[in-house]
Design a protein that fits this description.
The chain is built from 3 helices and 32 strands. A 4-stranded antiparallel sheet has the order 1-30-29-28, with no helix packed on it. The longest helix has 56 residues. It is elongated, with a radius of gyration of 31 Å. The termini are far apart. This is Coronin. Belongs to the WD repeat coronin family.
Length: 493
């Protein structure tokens, strides 16, 4: 008597489905940069995509209801002087996004609730430290306004965006940093580097706690912290075969699992859902999305299925769980960029007959409220993310939009001297409006003067032309007499 035991899992039948073309985003000039980035960032309000832009770097921000063909002259976020390499939405404010660029500057932007009506060139703050291009921006999962940036100068900097100052400078990497990831409560930092090493670092001090060889291949590697502390990595073997591995932080040099996938040369981005313990592997240039479930039973990383598409992907973004549709049992949503300019929306769904809220699929998930301030985090305090229930769907708080305003005024208040306070800033506003009015009056006077000079120039040109004709006629009258004209009276000249 023979029988086969099938592993029991509620995610065994997860299937992916691409939405129709008219529910996707078309005619997007996706960036042609060779940098290994996802080129896409998503939150429940907006979709942001790095695009090709003449004369600098830019990215486009679209509200989720603006589907279909995007106009070629759609407003952009375009204040960078070089191509944008990476973007990331703030997890605690859906209107705030950070961008890193080849111009060595990191900018933080505030996007209005209903999207952009004109090109945005004024950021909330510029973060200037790096000497070479900035290819990685990452927000802290629990502390408000804490942002990590990494550049090709091998430096990792952690900023307090609310004040625009660098909190920590980490210079322990001998080469370019490929990826960075905070753990569940943000107390540890995981990085991968071009020197093939994976490192766990104390983000407050920059001290390396452990390091090991990540993958032996020379191509780019990626590593993420899983919810319960394990480390998941992707990379290449010596023979350029793509691999993934699972490790414990205590024994980074001895992987629990090391599996070879295929021989493609595209970098694999691991996208992780901490609520379901699913990891999605999306390779650059691939036409598939593979997904795996991480469990405590061997072989620990269980292959579930592959979502196949006809076109290779240039970039990809993953929606946070609070932006998924709980009524249709959607557990993940991806925004996949094609070379043709189409941003394809793919939903991952668990098939269920009941239309009721499925509590086993939707445990409490990470909300948009920070657990700490930047100052508390720097003092050594750690907190788990604040979780919310999705039973009634996600409703963004109404007061959330005011945070960016207070952040902006907070940054601007750092610039003038402390004496004078609000009175001085009010005087500054009054002076600026008065100066503006003076400039407008001056421009009006200049325009009137230009018109007067243009009229005078026309009159002088006409007089010169008339004198020239008269002179030619006088010179011609000395010939055979055919061209002779009667002399003009002195008052007619």
């Amino acid at each position: 008597m023979s029988f086969r035991v099938v592993r029991s899992s509620k995610f065994r039948h997860v299937y992916g489905q691409a939405l129709k073309r008219d529910q996707c985003y078309d005619n997007i000039r996706v960036s042609k940069s060779s940098w290994d980035s996802t080129f896409c960032a998503v939150n429940p309000k907006f979709l942001a995509i790095i695009v090709d832009s003449a004369g600098g770097g830019a990215f486009i921000v679209l509200p989720h209801n603006k589907v279909g063909r995007i106009a070629a002259d759609h407003p952009l976020v375009g204040g960078h002087k070089g191509p944008v390499l990476d973007i990331a939405w703030c997890p605690h404010n859906d209107n705030v996004i950070a961008s890193g660029s080849e111009d060595c500057v990191v900018k933080v932007w505030h996007i209005p609730d209903h999207g952009l009506v004109k090109t945005l060139t004024e950021p909330i703050v510029d973060l200037i430290y790096h000497q070479r291009r900035v290819g990685l921006v990452l927000w802290h999962p629990t502390a408000l306004n804490v942002l990590l940036t990494a550049g090709s100068d091998n430096q990792v900097v952690i900023w307090n965006v609310g004040t625009g100052e660098a909190l920590v400078e980490i210079d322990s990497h001998p080469d370019i940093v490929y990826s960075a990831c905070f753990n569940w409560d943000g107390s540890k930092l995981l990085t991968t580097c071009k020197d093939k090493q994976i490192r766990i670092i104390n983000p407050r001090t920059g001290e390396i706690e452990s390091e090991a060889v990540c993958h032996e291949g020379s191509k780019a590697t990626r590593a993420i912290f899983l919810r319960h502390g394990l480390v998941f990595t992707t990379g290449f073997s010596k023979m350029s075969e793509r691999q993934y591995s699972l490790r414990t932080p205590d024994c980074l040099d001895k992987p629990i699992v090391m599996v070879e996938l295929d021989t493609s040369n595209g970098v694999m981005f691991p996208l992780y859902d901490p609520d379901t313990n699913l990891v999605y592997l999306c390779g650059k240039g691939d036409s598939v999305i593979r997904y795996f479930e991480i469990t405590a039973e061997p072989p620990f990383v269980h292959y579930i299925n592959t979502f196949q598409t006809p076109d290779p992907q240039r970039g990809i973004g993953m929606m946070p769980k609070r932006g998924c549709d709980v009524t249709s049992c959607e557990i993940s949503r991806f925004y996949r960029l094609n070379n043709s300019g189409l941003c394809q929306v793919i939903t991952m769904t668990v098939p269920r007959k009941s239309e009721l809220f499925q509590e086993d699929l939707y445990p409490d998930t990470i909300g948009d409220t920070s657990a700490l301030t930047a100052e508390e985090w720097m003092e050594g305090k750690d907190e788990d993310p604040i979780l919310i229930s999705l039973k009634d769907g996600y409703k963004p708080p109404e007061s959330k939009s005011s945070i960016s305003v207070s952040k902006r005024s907070n940054i601007l208040n750092k610039m003038p001297p402390k004496s004078g306070g609000a009175k001085q800033s009010a005087q500054g506003e009054a002076v600026s409006s008065q100066t503006l009015q003076e400039f407008a009056d001056e421009i009006r006077k200049l325009k009137a003067m230009i018109v007067k000079h243009e009229n005078r120039i026309r009159a002088l040109e006409a007089e010169v032309a008339l004198n020239k004709v008269t002179k030619e006629d006088e010179e011609g009258s000395g010939g055979d007499g055919l061209n002779a004209a009667p002399p003009l009276a002195s008052d007619e000249v």
